[in-house]
Fold these 2 entries.
Entry 1:
Amino acid sequence: MKFFIIPIFAPHLGCPHQCIFCNQRSISGVSNPTTTPNLLEKTVKLYLKTWGKKEDFKTQIAFYGGSFTGLDLKIQESLLSKAHDFINRGEVSSIRISTRPDYIDSEIVCLLKDYGVDTIELGVQSMADRVLMLSRRGHTSSDVEMAVETIKGYDLELGLQIMPGLPGDTPDLIVNTVDRIIKMRPDFVRIYPTLVIKDTPLEELYLRGNFLPMTLYEAVNICKKALLRFKIADIPVIRLGLQSTPELERQGTIIAGPYHPSFRHLVESAIFLEMGERLIEKSPLYDERLTFRVTPEDYSYFCGQKNGNIAKLKERYKKKDIKVIREISVKKGSLELITDSSTFCIDHRELNS
């Protein structure tokens, strides 16, 4: 099912404190944190007027940026009631909210479901309690597990967000977080490598020399492992890296860290580069020219940005020419190498072995 999302940003609303990494005004690109029923109505009507009703899409009003269930109950109900009016008129299918794991219980989820919420996203960030403590999250991994169990009990769609590279994090802890997330079987996942954003406690820690963010190379490699694990588990990763916004791109907003506007492309390309390497090592090394086949959807991932993967393969294996053919019969996530004598195939699932 494809979604048409109408975003309602409420930076910091409902949050009990500021986590070490967080400046929602910069991340979301919204400087005014005030969200009212009237503003919500105007925003939704504008989206619907501009884009119309999208056939074959599920239209959702989505509350982003804060911990929705941390809001005063009257505020929650006023916003949900206004959003639910659009559901009653058939203009919107449902509502999604994002919140903290420790702000979920049966009473809250029952209220949300009554108002038409059918997707809840939890900011998990890590399943390592020391990482959560150092990041001033104010919840534990046990809170995550309890919240997930509660949400699943109401048959709602569940999304979990993680942030590799927080203070105290290590590659092993990140992989452990991914594996524990997989065991909880969310419907989808978002992965946001940790960035040092201006005017956050993490910036102060970084400037004092007490925090070192991942390099872009390190982030791509650890997120490659995470993405492969989620792919193999058939859990969609619907976002990889922060979405580019004018505020985020403004000079001085990102102080340090592995930001790239096409971060997912880098990670997917790293997967296909390894697939290409494995196929070449299976093939007769005397072939100076190689021909690969890949589905059109994966063509750009295999070639890499500015054909970077092709250049690396040619240089590494001393090949004069590498030809890449778009072929719809090739399975998504797979790669084929055609030689005079045979065809070699690899699927991304083989990389985890």
Note: The chain has a mean pLDDT of 91.
Entry 2:
Amino acid sequence: MDKSQTKQMPKNFDFAEAEARLYEWWETNGWFKPEVAPDDAEPFVISMPPPNVTGALHIGHALFVSLEDLMIRYERMRGKAALWVPGTDHAGIATQLQVEKMLRDEGTSREAIGREEFLKRTWDWKGKYGGEITRQLRRLGASCDWSRERFTLDDGLSDAVQEVFIKLYEQGLIYRGPRLVNWSPGLQTAVSDLEVEREEETVKLYFFKYPIEGGEFIPVATTRPESILGDTAVAVHPEDERYKHLIGKTAYVPMLNRPIPVIADEYVDREFGTGALKITPAHDFNDYEIAQKHNLPMINVLTRKATINENGGQYAGLDRYECRKQLWADMEAAGLTIKIQDYTTI
């Protein structure tokens, strides 16, 4: 055999070179497109759960890419018109946090650079990390049709979302009304329940006396004394012998002396705290539900920057933590405090 016509097999297999070369060959020949199947082929479509453009992929992404690639290649080999639609997600809050961190490292902030420049920097971030994610997906061997790649803020997708909401509104299936949300004073925006991370922590539980008409009082406990300013009721269990005689009477919000009712509700846990519950519908999700049942008003006492607003009376303008300290000191001077103890919550 003529040795000049043979090619020496490398001692070690260079998988990085081979995988990249084969992937490019597959893509160049259009074998990731559904059009390679016959015209009468049954369609099989997977829309990729879009990774967030907040950095690089992690092991969880590698898992779903492997599983979906297995499914799409299997159906493609069965002769179906298999389409795997790739894309990335803008991940608004998470992306904003990353961009703001980058700006802080540069010694500036989104407020300092202004809205337009901040949007530009955010799109630059998307261009950098969205491209990195795409490169990683290709390197994993994902047999997507890249000619159909989408981003969750593409004009077409945004138009589709708006169209759905308009149709739902016209059909009377959605409406606009007051509703509690998770609010971030730092981000100055609402935060989805899915984006709220909870962790166990030890806080202070404040026990105090809620004045009742006739000179009586109900002992109540809270982890947020500043929220007392937004109370619209005090709730007790209807079968609690300690407080049954007070149901229907008037209580007075400490330091503000605003009259509120004492109500009965089975939601109250007689074994927790003092067995009585202050109801602050504008600042607690459970209290909001109770307020809906009893037709109680919602009194918001916080601004978007988490300072006390005009509903907080003499405490208006204070930061919520400053208000907590000052209100408790005033209540202590008025003889309304009982004790403070550690409490573990999530």
Note: The first helix runs from residue 15 to 28.
